[in-house]
Amino acid sequence: MVRLAIHGGAGTILRSSMTAELQATYEQGLQDALDAGYKVLQAGGSAVDAVQSAVVSLEDFPLFNAGKGSVFNNTGTHEMDASIMDGSNLKAGASSGTSNVKNPVLLARAIMDKSEHVLLCGKGAEQFAKHQGLEFEEDNYFYNQHRYEQWQQALKEDTISLDHNDKKFGTVGAVALDAQGNLAAATSTGGMTNKKYGRMGDSPIIGAGTYANNNTCAISCTGHGELFIRAVVAYDISCLMEYKGLSLQEACDMVVHDKLVKIGGEGGLVAIDKHGNICLPFNSEGMYRGYATETERVVMIYK
């Protein structure tokens, strides 16, 4: 049994503000990422390799706020965050505030596999990426007219924007269960439009935006990062399963629809447990999401 679930962000995603053409483009982006990750699992590959492949595909797709599609920060550059975790040994890698690294998830993976650290940030993380021979791109690779206009609008209003369509939490992520019974999770984001002071959300923080443990589940979150950090969302779901004996569904429902709502935390997540159960809960209007099993491949956007 192998399983994969992905997301491309949650928030105010309404059918009324989406053209049929744009919807088809988003669905294709999700489908491509599912195909990339599931192919790895079908070939007997590891859950870690599968989530990495799925997230690379999402980072390369310009409509999602990660990698190529990352939003502009206050100074008109891109600061990207990513993380990855292996549920078989609790190893993890993460990077924060990097610019010009083509695929931040590959940097997170290199940190997990090739360094004694978990989280590297800024210039140091970029230096490490260069030492590892990772691909860098010029600023124009990350330039997107729509993102630029969002940034200009945010500058004019002096606001920090949670992405387009008024409020969309643009993060991408994937969780997987491989044939060996191992779980893994990965998350990547360009953060908030017009963010200042090196702001970091939950995506690169192990336990907040990303978590995987073979004893319980694998989780990748998307939402208002500050609230997800305060609620330690990903780890909380694992804890509710491990210490309280809740099912994946029960734990996800409690955290996403109760605990987060109480503190005003909007967003969602994708989750898989060690038995192959999949949950895709969110408390926002929509979430770009999808999953693949032996019998079905599904992508969804709205409630």
Give the key terms.
303 residues; alpha+beta; Glutamine Phosphoribosylpyrophosphate, subunit 1, domain 1
Description:
- With 303 residues, the protein is of the alpha+beta class.
- The chain has one domain (3-302): 4-Layer Sandwich (Glutamine Phosphoribosylpyrophosphate, subunit 1, domain 1).
- Helices cover 34% and strands 25% of the residues.
- Strands 1, 2, 3, 4, 5, 6, 7, 12 and 13 form a nine-stranded mixed β-sheet that branches.
- A hairpin with a 4-residue loop joins strand 10 (267-273) and strand 11 (278-279).
- Helix 2 packs antiparallel against helix 3 (104-114) and helix 7 (233-244) packs across helix 8.
- The chain is globular, with a radius of gyration of 17 Å.
Uncertain residue ranges: none
Percentage of residues assigned to helices:
25-40%
Task: Give the CA-based shape.
Answer: globular
Number of helices: 8
Q: What's the average pLDDT?
A: 94
**Name given to the CATH homologous superfamily:** (Glycosyl)asparaginase
Give the SSE string: EHHEEHEHHEEEEEHHHEEEE
CATH fold-level name? Glutamine Phosphoribosylpyrophosphate, subunit 1, domain 1
Provide the CATH top-level class: Alpha Beta
Terminal-residue CA separation: 28 Å
SSE-based structural type: alpha+beta
Characterize the biggest β-sheet.
Answer: 9 strands, mixed
Total E-strand runs: 13
CATH architecture: 4-Layer Sandwich
